[in-house]
Amino acid sequence: MNVGPQYTGQVSSFTRDSFAVFVGGGVGACLRYTVSLVAPHLISGPLPQHYLFLLPTLLINTLGAFLLGLLLAYLAARGPETARRRSLRLSLGTGLLGGFTTYSTFALDGVQLFLDQRWVLACSYLTLSLAGGLLFAMAGLRVGQKVGARA
Question: pTM score, two decimals?
Fold first, then answer.
């Protein structure tokens, strides 16, 4: 008498989807780490050296917003969700771009600026990050719609 579930040899969609998010998230987090190490050496500007930590997070989050908008609009323009589109959305959108972008670092950067009493820089950074993220997401949506409609 067998009372447990029968193994059918097929992987459940939950397991497959979770694995896609897991792999994409790992790759995205590694990309974020790489950008955070490399970007301060490539970027020079009016910020003192000890505030260059703000630029990688700003770059990562605005680029991530653009790419997520592009991906989702492109997939939507291609038609209804299929298994392949779902896999792409989960692995690239939820996984890779979710692992790449970082709200927590953005929030902590803002708090640190306030604690350092850098009021203007804190407000500028938070406003630029939020407005930039929204604008880049809208741009990504527009580009994704156009590219998806042509493909």
Answer: 0.87
In order of 26, 62, 88, the CA distances from 50 in angstroms are: 28, 21, 38
Cβ–Cβ under 8 Å, residues 73 and 142: yes
CB 123 within 8 A of CB 109: no
pLDDT digits (tens, 9 = 90+) for 120-148: 999 999 999 999 999 999 999 999 999 99
What number is the average pLDDT over the span 47-61? 82
